[in-house]
Design brief:
Blueprint lengths: L13 H5 L20 E6 L4 H15 L4 E7 L13 H19 L4 E7 L8 H12 L6 E6 L6 H17 L2 E5 L3 H4 L10 E5 L2 H12 L2 H4 L14 H5 L5 E5 L9 H9 L9 H12 L9 E4 L5 H6 L6 E5 L2 H10 L6 E5 L11 E7 L7 H13 L1 E12 L10 H11 L4 E6 L3 E6 L4
Parallel strand pairs: 1-2, 1-4, 2-3, 4-5, 8-9, 8-11, 9-10, 11-12
Antiparallel strand pairs: 6-7, 12-14, 13-14
Length: 442
Amino acid sequence: MTPAFDHLDSGRPEQEWLADERWGSLPTLTIRPGRGLRRLVVIAAHPDDETLGAGGLLHLVAQAGVPVDVIVASDGEGSHPDSPTYDRAQLARVRRIEVMDAVAILAPDARVRHLGLPDGDLAAHAASVAAALRESVADLGVGAVIAAPWRHDGHTDHDALGAVAAQVAEQTGALLLEYPIWLWHWGSGDDVPWARLRVLPLQDEQRAAKRRALATHVSQIEPLSDALGDEVLLGAGMLAHFDRPFEAFVDSSGFAEVELFERLHATRGDPWQVRSSDYESRKRDLTVSMLPARRFARAYEPGCSVGELSAALAPHCDSLICQDLSATAVQEATDRLAAYPQVQVRQGSVPHDWPEGDFDLIVLSEIGYFLSPVDLDAVLRRARMTLRSGGYVLLCHWAHPIEGWELDGRDVHARAGQLLDLPVHARQVDDDVLLEVFGPCP
């Protein structure tokens, strides 16, 4: 049921909220900018929602250089319906300026989109909201994070946006984080979805930026005038809920704690279209054609995904170990490779779960730029250490820039040339593919 509340009510004091022991047992939300997070999209029902509910998140992600979109569904022209000094059009203009100033503090390079939908009637315009969200995240899928008002926040516009965001996240694979706002005013501890709540710790820098941004929303935190109908909308008691050393988000899908690559495979099955794309098919053909021998006694392919390249390598190997971080991918690859008894499929990450023994072929295909520079160096060193005399390391990567990761294919191959300390046996470079074979190992 939708709770009945009035913004002029005193609401539940912040001290009572913070005294609840359940805060101490909540999981910490780990946002890893630069490691697969390709865009943050914050959608607000009204100007100021973005700052109240996700201002710290906005600042944290923007400071890390991740692209940010802020979508403001309405101009909040209905915040003071009885104002004798501002009509709806005037208030809309004021609030547009305020939100632009706030976002400029939190995320100076963010793209801000004003949908201009009617305040108080967003539920009737769900299709327009969904279209705007899809435009921001559809090309990124799991690489996007959507922050939206909680769908049970008690304000009809917040509830409508949360429901739309949930649909778009499910359709695209984006991670959805819902931020409560009015819950902290009308609710009690029993109204909080503690089992799905996650906290994002805020450093002093994020809290200071959030305070400065909130101060720009003058029409909401100060009275419009002394006249009846121009009262302050967000009083000190309400604002106290948003000066916490953390922000709270509802993870309704349960994906916030799921590792990125598992989320990719769980939501999309074949996230890189390795079974269907022309690029992947051509790359497999190139890889097999550039194998420097007809047969290999023992080979290793980390990051095997659903096993399509593994199936192309298997006929050339007496023994092949395939590995992936995602449990879903491992199951898919196991099914795909069932016809090859010489193939073992394992779950694990590199460099931490590198197999025992040595190899005469190690294939690093489309994996290097998903590693941190430190882990990439460790992988290349481990590859060199476990390569048999006369063995080869084959690297193949997408030649274009990789958004949202620290490295791209050219970085990976340059580092391989330095750390493997092996001659280049063969090379294929074009607009799409970087493919190099290093060896033979002396």
